[in-house]
Amino acid sequence: MRIRAVLLALAALAALAPAAGAAKGPTLAEIEEEVMCPVCGTLLQLAEAPQAQRQKAFIARMIEEGRSEEEIKDALVAEYGDEVLATPEGSGFNLSAYLVPIVAFLVAAVALAIGVMRWRRAGGGPGDRGGPASRGGGPSGEDADRLEADLARYDL
Amino acid sequence: MSVRSSIAVLGVVAFVGLLVFGLVSKGSSGLAVGDAAPDGPLPRLEGGGTESLADYRGRWVLVNFWASWCLPCREEAPALERFQRRHGGPEFTVLGIATRDLSSDGQAFVREYGLTYPQLRDGDGDVGDDFGTTGVPENFLVDPSGKVRLLFRGPISEEYLREEVAPLLPMAKS
């Protein structure tokens, strides 16, 4: 009888285990990495100020209540405003935090490409000394002769 | 000057302007005596709804920035409450602003010290920044026209309230 009860309990635990794993909520350490201590201006995980301790206790309570990461962050924003989030939300004005670097990179790449194209069109490139002959697409006759002579001298 | 040069100069001027603006706004030293006090709306700490300093125009208001996690705020709270009980009325009130604090903690603080004066909540600290606060507690006496008449950084004492604040209030003069 006792063995049967133990087996039943084990079976019940085994059945519950995957569900518990699926419903695993965030940890305090995970949230601390993603939110700020508004008074200290640092990540919460680095903060030890009295306000930070209260904030950590608040998060721990919400984790105990089974709240999701999203719900906890929303509650923190309701208490401290958007600045409590270490990374801005990807919507509204905050979207610019993600878009501006991308746009700036694209603009810089295009400007660089245009600059290189103009420079090459103007006759720039390795070996260019800016002389009129060099802009003709090859060495002048005199330079070509000297080049031939030099190559012949070093020809092994 | 060619169009391209003009655009380049404008770009440089705009960039430098942004840098200067950033430095100036970061280095702002906040309010001084005689300045108009910021009067943006804030949620009430309890009971819902919003209020602003503009709602108190016509009264003297001692604006007290505090937080429940701040030990000096605990020191000054009883003195502020006694001052409110003695002078509070149609011509004067203390106005508490809980800053960068959890609302539940702030509400518990108000109950713990039996504070009867109105309380607002500045969760993100923006209004405190507008006042130029650098911490808590800080106190600003605002006159009926909305101008700052006194400012006191740090925990306010019974003596300061009696000797500096009370003499300015109309009921103390009569």
* Uncertain residue ranges of chain B: none
Helix share of residues of chain A?
Answer: 55-70%
Cα end-to-end separation of chain A:
100 Å
Return the average pLDDT of chain B rounded to an integer.
Answer: 91
| Number of distinct beta strands of chain A | 2
Strand order of the largest sheet of chain B: 5-4-3-6-7
Counted by DSSP, the helix tally of chain A is 6
Tally the helices of chain B: 6
Beta-strand content bin of chain B:
15-25%
Q: Could you spell the SSE succession of chain A in H and E letters?
A: HHEEHHHH
Order of helices and strands of chain B: HEEEHEHEHEEHH
Q: Identify the overall geometry of chain A.
A: elongated
Task: Characterize the largest beta sheet of chain A: strand count, sense, and whether it forms a barrel.
Answer: 2 strands, antiparallel
Q: Which quaternary structure do these chains form?
A: heterodimer
Uncertain spans of chain A: 18-22
Helix content of chain B: 40-55%
Radius of gyration of chain A from CA coordinates: 34 Å
Overall pLDDT of chain A, averaged? 81
What percent strand of chain A?
under 5%
Put the structure in a nutshell.
With 156 residues, chain A is mainly alpha-helical. Chain A has 6 helices and 2 strands.
What do you see in this structure?
- The complex is a heterodimer of chains A (156) and B (174).
- The radius of gyration of chain A is 34 Å and the shape is elongated.
- In chain A, 13% of the residues are buried.
- Chain A is built from six helices and two strands, in the order ααββαααα.
- In chain A, a hairpin with a 4-residue loop joins strand 1 (36-37) and strand 2.
- Chain A is an all-alpha fold and 156 residues long.
- In chain A, strands 1-2 form a two-stranded antiparallel ribbon.
- Helix content of chain A is 60%, strand content 3%.
- Chain A has helices at 2-22, 28-32, 50-64, 69-80, 96-121, 141-154; strands spanning 36-37, 42-43.
- The longest helix of chain A is centred in the last third of the chain and has 26 residues, at 96-121.
- With 174 residues, chain B is of the alpha/beta class.
- Chain B has six helices and seven strands.
- In chain B, the strands form two sheets. Chain B has a five-stranded mixed sheet with strand order 5-4-3-6-7. A two-stranded antiparallel sheet of chain B has the order 1-2.
- The A-B interface holds A 38-39, 49-51, 53-55, 58, 78-84 and B 67-71, 100-103, 105, 123-126.
